[in-house]
Amino acid sequence: MVELQVIAWSFIYFGGKKMTLNLESMIKAAAKKKKADLVIKNGRIIDVFNLEIIEADIAINDGMIIGLGQYEGIEEVDANGAFICPGLIDGHVHMESSMIHPYHFTQTILEHGVTTIVTDPHEIANVSGTAGIQFMLDATEKAPVDVFFMLPSCVPATSFEHNGASIQAEDLAPLYEHDRVIGLAEVMDFPAVRDGNAAMIAKLTQASRINKKIDGHGAGLAPEDINIYASANIKTDHECVTAQEAKERLKRGMYVMMREGTVAKDVRALIPLVNERNARRFLFCTDDKHLDDLVNEGSIDHNVRISIQEGLDPLLAIQIATLNAAECFSLTDRGAVAPGYRADLLFIDNLENFTIKDVYKNGIITKGKGPFSPIPVPNLLQDSVNMKPINKDDLKISVRTDQPCNMIEIIPNSLVTKHIKETVTTYKGEFISSIDNDQLKLAVIERHKCLGHVGLGIVKGFQIKNGAIASTVAHDSHNIVTVGTSDEDMLVAVKAMEQINGGLVVVCEEKVVASLPLEISGLMANLTTENTLSSLKELHEALHLIGSQKSFNPFVALSFLSLPVIPELKLTDTGLFDVRKFEHIPIQAK
């Protein structure tokens, strides 16, 4: 009689790639019938289930934790009394906002203890469609961090602007077959959900039918509107800016993502709501964070530190940053230091300051550097500025002086803007920027399909004294957006966008004084992290030449002024957009 040996197998993601595990070997190591690959001793383990600190060895085999207790290992590491917690998880991030190649992005956040992210590539999708999404998938296949994807739900974000692509349910279908695609990303077109728009319903139904997660985007929504989102199987929201907004979502069974990005900083406002009764429905995210802030502040580790500073129990903050995020997205093999969980571990010297000493990914110590190199960028993604030439006539705003104008007022370090009405200075019936009144001309120029659209508006709050800035990072359609004190400077800035194929520029006295080319769809630099940081430093220094204030980053503020899903008033390539009314309005107020 032939004896058959059956070996059980499981799976693990290593650098984003699915790998096979030998369960028989792991069980033997757990049962101490063989030495574990690695044993970590003398550590103080953060138990995220009981919110306790325990002292035990951590036994690891094939990159997975197989036991807590007393173990012997082929290799043994002395933690020297360090606290040991799970790797951090970012529940919602747009990698494109870092303005670096996705591979370099993952290296950067790994240094800050983030071992898993859930990303939404809708920025690049709005420029380059499914080719952009595929690039992001390919670029993170061998990344040092596990990268899971939510597929963009709103490309374009709304029908009131012009972007580079349109993605429907049938376009998403083949992408759902990818191992690392776990759901449908932030549904930001609430009216499409409320009104039963056929294309939106198709996407929601598609995701639900195949048991995928669906993220929300409930900026400014009333409780009755949240009922609609929750009924559509939308389970998360990262747009809460007050504790009351967060509580309304908790009442309806949603997860609240507490965001701390470059502009939107909501953790301090939401933390007072968190307690041990409701904490399991919270997780952290960064959403949009620029490279210099990632390097200087950190990623989710920054969210944890802020929470602790605001009085939250450090163990509860760690639970929110790990187990909660994992369970929200059904990533059942991560988020805890326990058998059956991957050995994504952080050694913490000081819990109050949350200072990270070492990072382990799948049981291997790392200093943020992966073993691979970033993949080449397809030519298709490096030719993304396709616009009709513009001249000074295209920037003229004809207004009357006896009536106020609808005007955007920026709120420093906030995505939200104010809709104000003020009289303006004119010359021969045309608006001219006023430095004294801090009223500057704003333009959004279509750059994807040579449509020739130029949206014009007036903005208050930039405090620029002399010159202009321009960018192709302009959420979510990513047209060219520019603001300046004169039409001449603005035109120089726009033409520079064509020459560098997208990016950021600073103009002073009709000369480009600093620029950062973003060759990847006009959103990301094909440079090393160090070189990108150097260029960003030059940009920030150049901003001082034009009188920019240090209290906020004008490029970040500019990038959200064309986003017509965040209240109150924004500017698209076809004009001023009232987000409350969800319609375009004229510059001259009635």
Question: How would you sum up this structure, described in words?
Answer:
- InterPro entries: Adenine_deam (IPR006679), Adenine_deam_C (IPR026912), Amidohydro-rel (IPR006680), Metal-dep_hydrolase_composite (IPR011059), Metal_Hydrolase (IPR032466), Urease_alpha_N_dom (IPR011612).
- Residues 83-363 form the Amidohydrolase-related domain.
- This protein has 2 domains: 86-380, Metal-dependent hydrolases (TIM Barrel, Alpha-Beta Barrel), CATH 3.20.20.140; 382-584, no CATH class.
- 25% of the residues lie in helices and 28% in strands.
- The chain contains 15 helices and 33 strands.
- An 8-stranded parallel β-sheet has the order 10-11-12-13-14-15-16-17. An 8-stranded mixed β-sheet has the order 22-21-26-25-28-27-29-30.
- The model is unreliable at 1-9 (pLDDT under 50).
Q: Which secondary structure elements does this structure contain, and how are they paired or packed?
A:
Elements: E1 9-14, E2 17-22, H1 23-30, E3 36-41, E4 44-47, E5 52-55, E6 57-61, E7 64-69, E8 73-78, E9 83-86, E10 88-93, H2 102-110, E11 114-119, H3 122-139, E12 146-151, H4 169-172, E13 181-187, H5 190-194, H6 198-209, E14 213-216, H7 223-231, E15 236-237, H8 243-251, E16 255-259, H9 267-270, E17 282-285, H10 291-296, H11 300-309, H12 314-328, E18 345-350, E19 355-361, E20 364-366, E21 405-410, E22 417-422, E23 426-427, E24 430-431, E25 439-445, E26 454-460, E27 468-471, E28 480-484, H13 487-500, E29 503-508, E30 511-517, H14 529-545, H15 554-559, E31 569-572, E32 575-578, E33 583-584
Parallel strand pairs: 3-8, 4-9, 10-11, 11-12, 12-13, 13-14, 14-15, 15-16, 16-17, 21-26
Antiparallel strand pairs: 1-2, 3-6, 4-5, 6-7, 9-18, 18-19, 19-20, 21-22, 23-24, 25-26, 25-28, 27-28, 27-29, 29-30, 31-32, 32-33
Helix pairs in contact: 11-12
